[in-house]
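Person: Please comment on this record:
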Amino acid sequence: MDYNKEFLKLAHELANSVNETVNRNFRNTSDWKIKPSVDEQRNQILTETDIECEKIMRKLINNKYPKHGIIGEELGNENEDAEFVWVLDPVDGTKAFVAGLPVFGCMIGLMANNIPVLGVIDQPVTGERIWGSKDGSYLNGKIIKTRKCNSIEKAICAITDPSMFFSHENIYSEIIEKVLFVRHGTDCWGYAMCAAGTIDLVIESDLKIWDIAAAVPILIAAGGKITPWEGEDLLNTNSIIASGDPSLHDICIEFLKAK
């Protein structure tokens, strides 16, 4: 059996399964609430859409592959030590969703023995879907590649929120001054467009596994590189640098280490 093909088919089914729910609740001002957080620096928003969509996807996975594990942002972990583990972020970019801005996405990743092997980022409102695996990366069925850029000064950089750098304000200031320009509010689409060759860098902190698991195989299959600021363990870090050009990634790693 071609597991890559079989599992990618399920990933698309998972994305399709929540499209109607997301579109129905988009710009519904009664869909969300502020949830308690241990981090007083950042307001945490919870939507009913997050929970409803994760329940739908979990049910599909459990029915199709009951031995697979699941890690979800809203509903926790189950069988996370399994060979294959799905990583779900039903609405990555919750604040954009709540604000009525179509720059959020459903992130669906699959790990095999703790290595991200395929990912889907779906935007139901605009109808854009990007996915990647060992067979390449695609945007709405068209193969995509990263672009060459080996200069920080010429790089377009995506950072979802400046508050990610609350404990690294000096690094944030240096990035702003160094790169060509920064786009904020990108969430998962910063990684997606880095894979598609319109953004050169994504530098972020304060992340969880569901924020990056789907992005990793998409970006790598498109020709890019993604690692923590220090080291190589993507699953045990909260600070990520992604680059479309691997040579730019290496330059930026050295740049960050010097700060």
In short: The chain has a mean pLDDT of 91. The chain has two domains: 3-143, 152-257. The CA atoms of residues 11 and 67 lie 16 Å apart. The helical segments are 3-25, 48-64, 94-98, 169-178, 188-196, 209-212, 215-221, 246-257.
